[in-house]
Amino acid sequence: MHLPPFETLIDAHAKELHRFLVGCVGPTEAEDCLQETFMSALRAYPRLQHGDNLRAWLYTIARRKATDAIRRVARRPTRDLDGLDAAAPPGPEPVDDGIWHSVRSLPAKQRDAVVHRFVLDLAYAEIGVRMGISEEAARQNVSAGLRRLRREVTP
Questions:
Q1: What is the pLDDT of residues 75-101, one digit of tens each?
Q2: Coil, strand, or helix at residue 53?
Q3: Residue 20's closest CA among 110, 154, 116?
Q4: How many Å apart are CA 25 and CA 65, to the nearest integer?
Q5: How far, in Å, are 10, 11, 43, 96, 116 from residue 3 at the CA level?
Q6: pTM for the full predicted model
C-alpha cells in the first residue's frame, strides 16, 4: 500500500481540522489540540495498514485530543492558589459569544456532530463518514445536540 507523504496530509486538512477544534474546545485550546493531533498522527502514520479514509482517521485523532483537552480543563483548579504569583500575566480572554461555550459542554458525539454541521457546513452523510457512524446517527446527534442547546439557552 502506498500512502501519500505526511506533509500532503497536513496541507490538505490542517485548516478544516483547526476550525473543527475551535468549535469543539475554543480558540485557546484549539492550536494545542491541532499540534497534538498531528504529532500523534505522525507517530502512527508509518504503521497504518490502509489509507482508505485518512481524513476520517485525522478527525478521530482530533476528536480524542479535544476530549482530552476538555477533561484537562475540567480538572484545573478554578481558584487562584494563595501566596503564589502567576508565572505569566494572563492574556486577554478570547471573545466567545456564549453559545460556543454551551456547544463545548455537549456530550462528545453531539458536540462533534454540531461542529461538523454548523462550523464546517457538512451534509449529514459526510458527518457520518468523518465520525464513523451512519448518516441517520449523524442526523440524530445533531438533532439531540440542538435540542439540548435550546433547553440551555432558551429561558
A1: 765 555 555 555 555 555 455 567 878
A2: coil
A3: 116
A4: 10
A5: 13, 15, 14, 39, 26
A6: 0.65
User: Which grid cell sits at 121?
Assistant: 457546513
Can you tell me the distance from the alpha carbon of 44 to that of 26, in angstroms, rounded to the nearest whole number?
A: 26
Other Cβ atoms less than 10 A from the Cβ of 136: the count is: 11
DSSP classification of residue 62:
H
Mean pLDDT of the chain: 83
**37 neighbors 22 (Cβ within 8 angstroms):** no
With CA atoms as reference, report the closest residue to 141 among 105, 115, 104. Answer: 115
10 Å CB burial of residue 135 (0-12, 13-18, 19+) is middle
Q: Per-residue pLDDT tens for 8-19? A: 888 989 999 999
**Average of pLDDT values for 116-125?**
89
